[in-house]
Design brief:
Elements: E1 2-5, H1 9-26, E2 31-34, H2 41-53, E3 63-66, E4 68-71, H3 81-90, E5 100-101, H4 113-123, E6 129-132, E7 154-157, H5 160-165, E8 179-182, H6 185-188, E9 193-198, H7 204-212, E10 230-234, H8 245-253
Parallel strand pairs: 1-10, 2-3, 2-6, 3-5, 6-9, 9-10
Antiparallel strand pairs: 4-8, 7-8
Helix pairs in contact: 1-2
Length: 261
């Protein structure tokens, strides 16, 4: 795991955009795993800015797969994650809607939605770069504390804390759906490169537990410690409680430029 402490979230977003652009330049048909929520937005805004300026790669052949989807919202609702990712990234990058995928929660039976998505991920050849955020309680995607570290895509019940965290998108916690279909922790670990971005003091405890704590279902994001290629981009506030903060800074400062992230 490589932890990169930065001063601002915009700096983290620029580095995250570098990672994604490098993957697409290496393989124009790269498969990108996309997270929603506020954490990845600095990466997405930077990708869009570069694309509009003509300095980014072509995304014409790229395919994307969302981490999760709410259960109970009608198809086309503005807060579905398919609509959200189209609005926040894939439409501005010119990625055809047919190449943008997410868990299908609208086709019966719902109980098979997880297995269907696992098959789709396998058929795509797996994720090349998976963008991740982290919840204030350490959840990863919608794998809440207590989730199996080997879990696959399935239906999950959201905790009250997560519903409160997401209420800003719906107006109130009661309006946030209770259930989701989410990639499991085992599913996420199959991606080739995991790219986590976090900012703000509200994420400091979760980042510390995920990066420096024990690997435990009590902090689902700690499962990242088991993956061979993880990049964690954090701003000053999110990194504030890391015991090895200076070590991370020194290591990144001395990293050979050719090595990249």
């Amino acid at each position: 795991m490589e932890v990169v402490p930065l001063d601002t979230l915009d700096e983290a977003g620029a580095l995250g955009a570098d990672v994604i652009e490098a993957a697409v330049r290496r393989s124009p048909s790269a498969v990108l795993g996309l997270a929603t929520g506020s954490s990845p937005l600095p990466i997405y805004r930077e990708l869009i800015r570069r694309h509009q300026q003509g300095t980014g790669p072509s995304y014409e052949q790229v395919r994307t797969f969302n981490l999760d989807e709410y259960v109970g919202l009608p198809a086309g609702h503005e807060q579905t994650y398919r609509a959200t990712i189209a609005r926040e990234l894939t439409d501005p990058l010119g990625i055809d809607a047919q190449r943008v995928h997410g868990p299908d929660v609208w086709t019966a039976p719902l109980a098979e939605a997880g297995a269907r998505y696992e098959r789709a991920l396998t058929a795509a050849g797996g994720i090349d770069v998976q963008v991740l955020g982290i919840g204030s309680d350490g959840h990863l995607a919608f794998n809440e504390p207590g989730s199996s570290l080997a879990s696959s895509t399935r239906i999950k019940t959201l905790t009250q804390q997560t519903r409160r965290d997401n209420a800003r998108f719906f107006g109130s916690p009661d309006a946030v759906p209770t259930h989701v279909v989410t990639q499991g922790l085992g599913t996420i670990l199959r991606a080739s490169h995991l790219l986590l971005i976090a900012g703000g003091p509200g994420k400091a405890d979760a980042i510390t537990a995920a990066v420096e704590g024990p690997v435990t279902a009590s902090c689902p994001a700690s499962v990242l410690q088991l993956h061979p290629h993880v990049t964690v981009l954090v701003d000053r506030a999110a990194a504030a409680r890391l015991a090895r903060l200076e070590q991370y800074r020194e290591t990144y400062a001395a990293k050979p430029e050719w090595q990249g992230l």
